Each structure stands twice: as structure tokens, then as C-alpha cells.
From TrEMBL:
<feature type="transmembrane region" description="Helical">
    <location>
        <begin position="243"/>
        <end position="265"/>
    </location>
</feature>
<feature type="compositionally biased region" description="Pro residues">
    <location>
        <begin position="12"/>
        <end position="40"/>
    </location>
</feature>
<keyword id="KW-0472">Membrane</keyword>
<feature type="transmembrane region" description="Helical">
    <location>
        <begin position="344"/>
        <end position="363"/>
    </location>
</feature>
<feature type="region of interest" description="Disordered">
    <location>
        <begin position="1"/>
        <end position="68"/>
    </location>
</feature>
<feature type="compositionally biased region" description="Low complexity">
    <location>
        <begin position="47"/>
        <end position="67"/>
    </location>
</feature>
<feature type="transmembrane region" description="Helical">
    <location>
        <begin position="314"/>
        <end position="332"/>
    </location>
</feature>
<feature type="transmembrane region" description="Helical">
    <location>
        <begin position="143"/>
        <end position="165"/>
    </location>
</feature>
<feature type="transmembrane region" description="Helical">
    <location>
        <begin position="177"/>
        <end position="194"/>
    </location>
</feature>
<feature type="transmembrane region" description="Helical">
    <location>
        <begin position="206"/>
        <end position="223"/>
    </location>
</feature>
<protein>
    <recommendedName>
        <fullName>Integral membrane protein</fullName>
    </recommendedName>
</protein>
<keyword id="KW-1133">Transmembrane helix</keyword>
<feature type="transmembrane region" description="Helical">
    <location>
        <begin position="375"/>
        <end position="399"/>
    </location>
</feature>
<keyword id="KW-0812">Transmembrane</keyword>
<feature type="transmembrane region" description="Helical">
    <location>
        <begin position="286"/>
        <end position="308"/>
    </location>
</feature>
Amino acid sequence: MPVGGPEAEQPAPVPAPDPASGPASVPAPDPASGPAPIPLPLHRAPEVAPGVAARRPAARRGPADPVKSLMHRHRELCERAVDPLEIAAGLEAHGLTDRTASRYRHRDVFSLAEELYARVPGIVRAPDAPPPPRPGRDTEARAGWTLLALLPGAACLATVGLLRVTEGVLGGGARSAVTVAGALLVLLGLRASLRRGPLRAESRPIGAATVYGCWLLGYAMYGEGLLAQVMSGGPDGGWAGDLAPLLGLALAVAPAAWCAHLFSVHAHRKLAGSRALEEFGAAVRPVLLGTVALFLGALLVLLSLAGLAYGGGVPVAATALGVLLFLSRLLAVHGFPEPATTGLAAACAVEAAAPALILAGRLPGLDSLARPVDALIAAAGTGAVPTLACGAAALGLLIHAAVALSRASAHAAARVDTK
């Protein structure tokens, strides 16, 4: 059959030479002898199932620079930090300890933070942007928040003085109006003092803490009178409030602000001089206890003066309440508002349960409910209930503060005056 006809077989394609095997040694074709035979491969590749990749041994190798992976993981923290202390506090907040810092070839978190701070450049600020605040002496700021801290005590002192001067002159309605106006001024001054200075909390405030604080202050004025009325078979009619605890607590806002300021200053100094987290924790706990003792001494003096103005002694319940409020605010300032609110709520629950149990004990068959409260009041008076409630809550917050405030993450973010 002629070549090129419809039934002619097409020649098979010649496979391309394998570049890995080098140039093939094929003899040149002879034009006279016809087409050259196609060489067959000497070895055939093994069949591989479709979709199955060839398995290769995985290379086991760890990171040559473990700090680099940590730097990328916490890059935002390192960029916004103004010093290595903030990086150390952030790493501690993420669960990194001195023991785990050895995985990154460092003896402690502080040396690891210094390397991270040196490696990661900070955020480039605009030329006209103000520099980040640094610890330093700021007399104007101190004077500002000190004056604000004096406002609650000044408003309460003015209200008490006005009530004393107008005693027997103003009627019951006018005196009540003066008392309400004075209480509003005290609350406004307290709110202003808590928004600036060492008592200002950066975290979002919890609304329940405000309610619990108002309850405790109201109970300090009227709680013992209410218990006396309930114990005598009442309540019958009204009863006068005790302004001495409120006056002493309002005057103690200024010492509380200065004690909180001193605690932050000394804690920041301990943090700057420490080289390990355990070392910082052991150094800051005595500072905390000394701060609480200093505030307690100032509170006792102010409550004694307020008690002398009203012809009474030192109210122990008001002292326990003052320490409770101070510790709760100190925890909130350093980023622990939830435990502070829990402590206030526990004290409120005990104070509310006391008259409720006495009233419930009057029902038939439930007299056993009132026996613990009756025994406590019979042994130590009506002031024993708020003393027990606030004292136990304050002790619990002090134990929690000794643990929480001994962490670097509770202090390094705050810029304080260290001079």
C-alpha cells in the first residue's frame, strides 16, 4: 500500500532524552538503510499510584533562634513597650516564668525582655508627637490629685459643721435637705478623686462595686441603729444615723491616695532593681504590708478625731470598712477589679443577712436561724456584725493582694513618680 495512504500507521513519537542520564549514544541514521530503530529504555520506572506522593524522611530540626519565634509571637507587645520592664510584665502575664525562660537560653524573664526590647524597634512616632510619659517628679500633678482627694473630707466636714451650727434652728425637713445635699457633695468629690491620681483605675469599672460601696457606707451610718431596733422587737419608727464613721472615712480619702501612690512608687523601684520574678515578689510583699499598716494608722487617727467630735470612741467597724475599701481600690487600680468586687459583695451579704435572720427567727419553728446573730450581738454588741463582715472580707482581699500585687504585670504598665 502506498506510503501516506489513509491506512498508513503513524510513527510512534520518540521519547525525549533524560537530562539526568546524560547524552544518549545513538548511532547516526543511515539514509540508505531506512529509518533507524527506536531504542528502548534499559530500566523502567516503578509504578506509582496516582495521588500518592513519594515519602521522604522528615527533617527534624528545632529553631536555630528560639527568641526570634517568641519575638514574632509578641511583636505588638514589644513594639508598644517603652522599656524592657513592660515586656517582662507582658511575658509574665502570658504565663512565662523564670524557669520557662531557660528554653530561650536566658536565666530569667528580665534578661529575655531586654533582648526582645533590643531586637524589636519601637513604633516610630511623628516628630511633633509628645514622648511617652516617664517616671519623674511632677509637682503640679501631685498637687492636683491631692486637692481632689481632699474634696470628700472637706464636703463632709462642712456638712457636719453646718448641722452642728444650725442645731435647734432648722426644722427636721431643712436638716434632712442639708444632709442630702452634703451627701451628694461628698459623692461628687469622691467620684472626682477616683478619676485622677493614684486611685484612678485604668480597667473598666464594675457598676456593682459602686452599689456595694454605697451599701457599706449607708450601713456604717444606719446599720447599728437598725440592728438595735430589730433586736428590740421593731423596727419601730425612725432612728438617727451616726455621722462619725462617714466623716472619718471621707477624711481618709487623702491618706488612701498617698498610700496608694507610695506603694506604686516603691513597687516600681523594686521592679527596676530586680533580676527575677521571685525576687520581685519577695521584695514587694513587705511593701504592701507596710502600705496597709500606714493607711491603717492614718485611718485610726482620723476616726478617733471624728469619734471625739461626737462624744464616742473609735468605731472598730468603720476601721475594718476603711481597710476593706482601700484594699479593694488598690486591687482595682492594678488591674484586679473582679476580686475587689467579690470582697465588697461578701461584706454586704453578711450585713444584710444579720437583720434578715433575726426577722426570720420570729416565724414559728425558725427561731434557730436567729441564734447565731443573737449570740454575736449579745457578746460584742451590734457593731460586731459589720466588724466581722468587713474584717473577714478585708483579710481575704489582703491575702489575694499579697499574691496578685507581687506580680510584675501588676506594676510595670503604670508610669509612676519615682522621685
